[in-house]
Specification:
The complex is a heterodimer of chains A (about 110) and B (about 450).
Chain A: E1 2-8, H1 13-22, E2 29-35, E3 42-46, E4 49-53, E5 56-65, H2 67-81, E6 89-95, H3 108-111
Antiparallel strand pairs in A: 1-5, 1-6, 2-5, 3-4
Helix pairs in contact in A: 1-2
Chain B: H1 23-27, H2 32-60, H3 66-93, E1 117-119, E2 126-128, H4 129-147, H5 157-180, H6 185-189, H7 197-215, H8 231-251, H9 258-286, H10 291-305, H11 314-339, H12 347-365, H13 380-412, H14 419-424, H15 426-431
Antiparallel strand pairs in B: 1-2
Helix pairs in contact in B: 2-3, 2-4, 2-8, 3-4, 3-5, 4-5, 4-7, 5-7, 5-13, 7-12, 7-13, 8-9, 8-10, 9-10, 9-11, 10-11, 10-12, 11-12, 12-13
């Protein structure tokens, strides 16, 4: 199993969700986060006071999938979230040791 | 003075000539239309304080200090109302012949009944004195609330309240008497201050300037992100101020007639000119016109037209608003940064400077040749010189008084909260509550 964590532009969330649903991914977690990479920040000016805003709003989505579907999921996220502009985000993939569905006690593949 | 024949020499307030209500006032019966108009105008000025000014300032602060600003505005209004009826009205309009002090004649509003009347600009036309007292009460209440924007986010609540009591007593009431009472020093110089450019705005701006320097900068000023937490609430508050300002300016006419109509249209046009002016300067100098800039221009225009509302023409008011917003823009975005004083909500930059531009501009745009109500005898040079003198007297009285009173406040309760309290935010530190829960 793989655990995939992706940082994407906020307005791309719905496209990514649709792409994953098409692939048969049944659940994901989305979190509003702030951060910076190569995109850096922007400047805000309030009555002459300039502030460099270095942390930009992003969405972090987390999804657990079987090892076989991981590549397809990564590709789907990449395609759906890409605009070609700086700041499109990143995908991080982890090996997932265990999964449990709390309601039934099902584990691993059955719990995804 | 040559402007004696201008009706607006009576400058926005009651004419207690030589210390007493004129005899006719005892007999005349208030007009119901005037009375209703003044009651509504009074309530509009209350709306300016809470929630108008409170939200305008609160939105400009960080979320952790939102409630402290709302609370300071609310509490100042309440305390000054109590002071006003106990001794403030007497100190300002108590009927003494002093040029600086209204006396003790109306302490606790002694002698005022529902049948008492206050004079207006027209002979024989009066309004109930209780309504006049309430109208002037809201002016006294908003002025110290304006001051706190200059040192918001870094002042003890107890210090704000103590300073307010001292300041209205030693600065506001005497200046209100000087400008608006028939025996007052500035009134008798022939200065034009229709709705309180000197009494309210220059007074508040100068006191705020003194306060922000004596209290010092916010921790993290120039390093941390101190950006406004809600521009939305700032515009909501600014718009409420604009609406309420019709009570402030048109109400200062004391009668529901054409003079009030002139003040009303000027309160529209000067403000519109100032919004356009500020936004145009921003668009030209930095390529983008900001919402905060438009809101700032709105307030700058309202401040500038306050002394002028009853005597300039609607087109002159547009020019006055434009000039005021350009100068205020320069102060808040260039002068403040260069000299490094931390005027959190630009009380000095907008109320102080806008008030000065308005007071001086009143001497210019009142001229009949520029669309004002001044007649053939009106001299721009002479009137402007009177206006400048009135401004200087206000700046000196308020500046010296405020330095002393901030010092006294510091000695008694201390001005600044601890660094830890400031970092935690004054909402939790001073009031034990939070504005927002996520």
């Amino acid at each position: 199993m793989k655990f995939i964590s992706a940082i994407i532009k906020p307005h791309k969330l719905d496209e990514v969700r649709e792409a994953l649903t098409t692939l048969g991914v049944h659940g994901l977690t989305a979190t509003e986060v702030k951060g910076y990479g190569r995109q850096k920040g922007h400047t805000e000016i309030y009555r002459g006071a300039e502030y460099l805003v270095s942390f930009l709003p992003k969405i972090k989505i987390e999804v657990a999938v079987s090892s076989e579907t991981a590549d397809a999921v990564i590709e789907a996220i990449t395609n759906a979230a890409r605009t070609g502009q700086i700041g499109d985000g990143k995908i991080f993939v982890f090996a997932l040791e265990q999964a449990v569905r709390i309601r039934t006690g099902e584990t691993d593949q059955d719990a995804l | 003075m040559i402007i004696r024949n201008l009706r607006s020499i009576i400058a926005g307030s009651v004419v207690f000539a030589a210390g007493t209500v004129p005899a006719f006032a005892q007999d005349a019966v208030p007009d119901k239309g005037d009375t209703a108009f003044m009651m509504l105008a009074t309530i509009l000025v209350l709306l300016m304080i809470i929630p108008g000014l409170a939200l305008f300032y609160g939105g400009l602060m960080r979320a952790k200090n939102m409630l402290s600003v709302l609370m300071q505005c609310t509490m100042i209004a309440a305390v000054v109302m109590i002071i006003w009826v106990t001794y403030g009205y007497s100190f300002a309009f108590g009927g003494s012949t002093s040029a600086f002090f209204g006396g003790f004649g109306k302490l606790f509003l002694v002698g005022v009944t529902a049948d008492s009347t206050a004079a207006t600009f027209t002979d024989g036309v009066v309004i109930p004195e209780f309504v006049f007292i309430c109208f002037q009460m809201t002016f006294a209440a908003i002025t110290p609330a304006l001051i706190v924007g200059a040192f918001a986010e870094r002042v003890k609540f107890s210090a704000v309240m103590l300073f307010t009591v001292l300041w209205v007593t030693a600065v506001y009431f005497p200046v209100a008497h000087m400008v608006w009472d028939g025996a007052g020093l500035i009134f008798n110089m022939g200065a034009l201050d229709f709705a309180g450019g000197t009494v309210v705005h220059i007074n508040a701006g100068v006191a705020g300037f003194v306060g922000c320097i004596m209290i010092g900068k916010r921790n993290g000023y120039g390093r941390d992100m101190l950006a406004p937490h809600s521009m939305t609430l700032t515009l909501v508050g600014a718009a409420m101020l604009w609406v309420g300002w019709f009570g402030f300016n048109a109400g200062s006419n004391l009668e529901a007639n054409g003079g009030a109509g002139l003040a009303m249209i000027n309160t529209f046009t000067a403000t519109a000119g100032a919004i356009v002016g500020w936004s145009a300067v921003e668009a030209i100098t930095r390529g983008k016109a900001s919402m905060l800039g438009a809101a700032s221009g709105m307030i700058a225009g309202l401040v500038a037209v306050t002394p002028a509302a009853g005597s300039v023409g609607p087109v002159g008011a547009i020019v006055l608003g434009l000039i005021a917003s350009v100068i205020c823009y320069y102060f808040v975005s260039v002068v403040k940064i260069r000299f490094g004083y931390d005027d959190s909500a630009d009380v000095f930059g907008i109320h102080g400077i806008g008030g000065i531009v308005g007071a001086v501009g009143t001497g210019i745009f009142t001229s009949g040749s520029l669309g004002g109500i001044g007649d053939a005898e009106f001299s721009i040079v002479a009137q402007t010189w009177i206006q400048i003198q009135a401004v200087l007297i206000t700046i000196v009285w308020c500046g010296v008084g405020s330095v002393i009173l901030f010092k006294v406040t510091d000695l008694i309760v201390g001005l600044r909260p601890s660094k830890e309290d400031e970092q935690m935010g004054l909402d939790l530190a001073s009031h034990g509550e939070a504005a927002y829960h996520s």
